[in-house]
Amino acid sequence: MMKEKSLNKQILHLLMLITISVIITVGTLSIINIYNSKKELINFNQSLVLKQVNTKINELINEIDDVSRYIKRNYGLDDKSSINNLLELKSFISSILVLNKDGIVENFYSKSVQQNVYKGFDYSNKEYYKKLKSTNVYWSNVFLSSVDETPTISYSFNMGNKIGVVLIDLSSLSTFVIKFKNQDGSHMIRVFDRNGIIIMNPDTKALISQRYDASSSEVFTELINKKSPDSHGVFKSNVSGEKQYGSYWQNSRTGWYLIVRNNYNEIMKPIYYIVVVFILLIIFFIALSIYLSFKISKKIFKSFDNLHTITSKIADGHYSLEHKDMYYEEFNKLLNSFSKMQEEIDKREDKLEQSLSSFKALFNSTMESIVLSHGYDIIDLNDVTVEIFGFESKDEAIGRNVLDFVSEDYKELVKERFKKNINEPYEVDFCRKDGTIINGLVQGKFLKLDGKNIRVSALIDISDVKSKDKLLFQQTKMASMGEMIGNIAHQWRQPLNVISTSASSIKLEKEFGILEDKQIDNAMEMIVQNALYLSKTIDDFRNFFRIDKSLEKFEIRDSIDKALKLLQASIKNHNLIIKTDFLDKKFEVEGYPNEFIQVIINLINNSKDAFIANDISPRIIEIRELVNRDSYKLKFSDNAGGIPDNILLKIFDPYFTTKHKSQGTGIGLYMSHQIIVDHMRGEFYVKNINYKVEEKNYKGCCFTIKLPKNISHSYTFEI
Predict the structure, then answer these.
(1) Are strands 369-374 and 377-381 parallel, antiparallel or unpaired?
(2) Are 650 and 668 in contact (CB under 8 A)?
(3) Which of 161, 179, 288, 708 is least surrounded by CB atoms within 10 angstroms?
């Protein structure tokens, strides 16, 4: 059994959980949002600084390109004065060297007072000389200048058969870089050459003169080697050992790495303060929500307790209760609804008692037998059931199995209907208390009562109806028998005349003494053949009147041929023209063949009677077969005048006829309908048509027999 829980505690816990979850979620999202906003702002500023520094370096490179072009044009003309002027104008140039093709110093110009270079020095082993052999211009990495013994970067270029070398003063470049500072006063920019040698570090200038190699530091291993340009990352400073947050960019002309950085702790410090403030706010609001949750839930559950007291008393049958107003308006409205409910319950209980009495009266006054069962066990039945089954009281059936009162032949059918919950009516044979069998028409349906699936079964005793059906079939047979005797008389007349004539001829010839053996043989042969024909005719009619006892498979076309053979004399005598349009393949069905022959005979006889009554000629009856994927159709069409529209829907009713009492009983089409629909599980219907004969239109009707293909029957029928 599930353990009962306190609604008060659950709602209180749920209210607190939701409130605290919302506060924590909102606080956390706010902190994350602030952190991301701060980070995005820093990223934007760093990217902007990188772009500005890179632009400045490109401007410097362009100026140096201009200087190299100027030297190419003016060297050798008035080289001394023009190049000295160039040194004075361009503050970023410390010295200019001119080498011959072998790397020997041909000329030099310098701002430095202390000069350690002279004409004729061999500089062929210098990197800026060797690298220039494979390219037109070359930017060197940081090296110690031999001119003034300071860290320098050179720009070398070809001058025909000479080489120009511009030595760049790095201090001039730092003038622009030192403008970019962090909040803690440190500089943002670091510049390294392509080998990782530091070019610029305004915070630690000694590293420049030391030509510090940072290629193994985290700025390279964690940022430059792992991140793409303009991406951001965290790395540790080799100088201070503190975490840095920054990005980098590589200049496409020089290959220099431009690093922008901020102290990571300085970035996080304001965020830490905000987080602390938010946490304090979250704790405050959580405490406030807990207090309010307790206070509100206490008032709510006090109202719930009052409602519980009132509803408990209502459940015990105390409908006249007074109540006090509660704190919340909604609960007062609910209490007013309870007051109305008290009155309505009182009224409905009275109505329910009346309805129950009415239901019991209806349950026992209906003409149908009604049985209620749970599974197969009977739980109730009405008085009609007691009477039909011959019980002395309901107690004899209640608690017993429904199948105890079902005939053995129908138990599986009933089980199937129960299992599949089929609601359509069906026929079943039942056993009464004394063992006698009754024919019943049953219909059932499952209903939900008290949480159980209850089968409500209604039964009608149709034993008398079945007896009348048998009688109708016999009357139909007897009515047909009268017509058949007339047909026998017509078919026997000619053979009997032949036999009589042959016998008289032999007798007469014998009296005159002219009888010969050959004449006797011919006459005897004629008599024997006609006697056999008479015997065959008797067999055909006897087979037709034989009662079908069991189902058998038969071909529709064979039944049509037999019917036409039985009606041969009548067809000929009344000038009927039978037209047939049969399929190539014969259609086979399971049923009672003589019953089906009876249907065909009824249809042809009805057409014959209509032709006679309406005096119509020519008299054409067309029999046509049609078939599709699911069904087979047999159509009987004539030009006998049709059926009046006002009786078209009544012709299949029992005892309905438009003929004189001496000519018909009105059961032929009714029984034909029963045979096709009930016994063969098909359809049987009629409609008026226009029938064209020799360019002339006649009114007529068309009867259609529609049978399902591949049908399996599981019923029995006796006549």
Answers:
(1) antiparallel
(2) no
(3) 161
Question: Which residue type sits at 686?
Answer: V
- 576-581 and 619-627 as β-strands: parallel, antiparallel, unpaired? parallel
Q: How far apart are CA 199 and CA 211, in angstroms?
A: 8
Provide the pLDDT for residue 470. 63
442, 460, 478: which is the final residue of a domain?
A: 460
Q: How far apart are CA 461 and CA 387, in angstroms?
A: 11
Q: Is 133 helix (H, G, I), strand (E, B) or coil?
A: helix
Tokens of 485: 């005797």
DSSP string across 141-156: --EE-TTTSSEEEEEE
Q: Where are the alpha helices (DSSP H) in 546-648?
A: 556-566, 568-573, 593-614
For the stretch 76-82, contacts whose Cβ atoms lie closer than 8 Å and that sit 24 or more positions apart, written own/partner, are: 79/107
3-state secondary structure of 577: strand
Q: How many helices (H) and strands (E) does the chain have?
A: 16, 23
676 inside domain: yes
- Report which DSSP code applies to 396: G
The whole-number pLDDT of residue 689 equals 93
Residue 446, φ and ψ in degrees, nearest 5: -90, 135
Residue carrying the six token digits 């002279």:
118
**590 domain-assigned:** yes
SS3 372: strand
- Rounded CA gap, 311 and 305, in Å? 10
- Please give the tally of structural domains in the chain: 2
CATH of the domain at 551: 3.30.565.10
- The whole-model pTM stands at 0.41
What does the angle CA 434 – CA 437 – CA 440 come to, to the nearest 5 degrees? 125
User: Are residue 559 and residue 684 in the same domain, yes or no?
Assistant: yes
**Whether 104 contacts 121, CB under 8 Å:** yes
* 419: number of Cβ within 10 Å: 8
**247-305 per-position pLDDT tens digit:** 999 988 888 899 999 888 888 888 788 888 888 888 888 888 777 777 777 776 666 66
Domain that holds residue 590: 538-708
Q: What is the pLDDT of residues 647-667, one digit of tens each?
A: 888 888 766 666 544 444 455
Structure tokens at 33: 């949002």
As to burial, measured by CB atoms within 10 angstroms (0-12 exposed, 13-18 middle, 19+ buried), residue 487 is buried
Interatomic CA distance for residues 177 and 42, integer angstroms: 18
d(C-alpha 437, C-alpha 428), whole Å: 10
179 in the Ramachandran plot: left (φ > 0), alpha (ψ -120 to 50) or beta? alpha
Rounded distance between C-alpha atoms, residue 685 and residue 509, angstroms: 61
Whether 564 and 703 share a structural domain? yes
Report the sign of the C-alpha dihedral through residues 133, 135, 141, 144, in that order: positive
- CA dist 131 and 151 (Å) reads 19
| DSSP letter assigned to residue 694 | T
Q: Are strands 696-708 and 683-693 parallel, antiparallel or unpaired?
A: antiparallel
Q: List strand residue ranges (DSSP E) for 195-301, in order.
A: 198-200, 232-236, 243-250, 257-263
Helices (H), 93-250: 127-130, 170-177, 206-209, 218
Cα-Cα-Cα-Cα dihedral of 263, 267, 273, 275, to 10°?
A: -130
432, amino acid identity? R
Q: Which residues of 108-139 are buried (b: 16+ CB within 10 A; e: fewer)?
A: bbbbbeeeebeeeeebeebebbeebeeeeebb
Q: How far apart are CA 338 and CA 357, in angstroms?
A: 28
DSSP letters along 37-58, please? HHHHHHHHHHHHHHHHHHHHHH
Chain centroid to Cα 390, Å, comes to 55
Is 661 part of any domain? yes
What percent helix, strand, coil does the chain show, rounded to 5?
50, 25, 30
